[in-house]
Structure formats: structure tokens, C-alpha cells
Design brief:
7 helices; mainly alpha; single chain
Length: 178
């Protein structure tokens, strides 16, 4: 298994789902046992909300704006059902380095864990939603809206709809196309 391959084997592709699900469960359990319930959920929700903006910005400005990421992402647009995704070691390393460590330095351990939990929930939601938009047929209104927006993202002449889990930031920043 290549750690930094863009197109993954089935096992490597599923690693995000397994790793992030386990991390969410463990962090939730640790926080629930170590901290009063009134203290940490607000930070987790803040991390989740922050994730939606990070998801949008990464997709719009990095995957559609910076080389070599733009070329790599173009492969996904060419073959949307292929198992092309960010390597788990890369996403986990970035979350640890850019979210957990700065939060730890600024806020302490349990607050950093709570904020990171929210980001992890967001990333896991993104991974599942993105997979679902390309591979699942379900009768769910929310997912149908996500599938439609993501299909537009893949097929519009002028790029738009960069949010996968939400179109909020597309509306805020004017990338929701008609």
C-alpha cells in the first residue's frame, strides 16, 4: 500500500472512514469521561463549523487553484468514481499539525481535543458525503441536494459549488452558480 498515492486500493480508500470514525469515538469518550458535558461540546461545534469553511477554502483555492494539487484534483474530475482521495496520512498529519498543535499551545489539552473533535467530525462527514455523492443512490432530500450541487461542480463550465457538505460558503462567496 502506497502511503501517498492519489488513487487508492479499496483498503487504503476506506482508511479515512475507519481512522476518523475511531478517532471521533475515542475523543468523544475521553472528553465525556474527563470533562463536564457543559464545557467541551461548544468547542467541538466551533471546530465543526470551522471545518465547513476549511473544506470550502481548500477545495476552491488549493484543489482548484494551486499546482500540483490542481492537476491531481483534475484526475478526480476526469474519473469521479475512481478511488482518488487525499492520503489518510496526509489529512491526519495536517489536522494534527494545523489544528491540534496550535490549539494545544493556545488553549490546553482538553480544549484542543474538543476543537479537534469537531474538525474530525467535519472531515469524516465530508469524506462520507463526498463518497456518497459519487457512489450511493439513496432517497434522502439532504443527500440529493448535495449530489446535485456536487454534480454541478463537476460539470459547470465556470467552477462553482466547492462546498461538499454544505453550499453555505458558496452562497456567501458567490460561487453558487445558476
Amino acid at each position: 500500500m502506497k502511503l501517498f498515492a492519489l488513487e487508492h486500493s479499496r483498503g487504503a480508500y476506506c482508511a479515512d472512514f475507519v481512522l476518523y470514525s475511531a478517532a471521533v469515538i475515542v475523543l468523544t469518550a475521553v472528553l465525556a469521561l474527563a470533562q463536564p458535558l457543559a464545557q467541551w461540546p461548544v468547542l467541538a461545534l466551533l471546530g465543526l463549523a470551522g471545518w465547513t469553511l476549511v473544506e470550502y477554502a481548500m477545495h476552491r483555492f488549493v484543489l482548484h487553484g494551486l499546482q500540483p494539487f490542481q492537476a491531481w484534483h483534475a484526475r478526480h474530475h476526469e474519473r469521479p468514481t475512481a478511488r482518488i482521495a487525499s492520503p489518510t496520512i496526509l489529512s491526519a498529519g495536517l489536522i494534527f499539525t494545523l489544528v491540534f498543535l496550535p490549539a494545544l499551545a493556545l488553549m490546553g489539552a482538553w480544549k484542543a481535543c474538543a476543537l479537534t473533535l469537531g474538525v474530525l467530525i467535519g472531515y469524516l462527514g465530508y469524506a462520507i458525503t463526498h463518497h456518497a455523492t459519487h457512489h450511493w443512490n439513496v432517497d434522502n432530500a439532504w443527500l440529493k441536494r448535495r449530489k446535485r450541487a456536487h454534480a454541478l461542480h463537476h460539470h459547470l463550465a465556470r467552477p462553482g459549488y466547492f462546498g461538499v457538505t454544505s453550499t453555505l460558503w458558496d452562497h456567501v462567496f458567490g460561487s453558487a452558480r445558476r
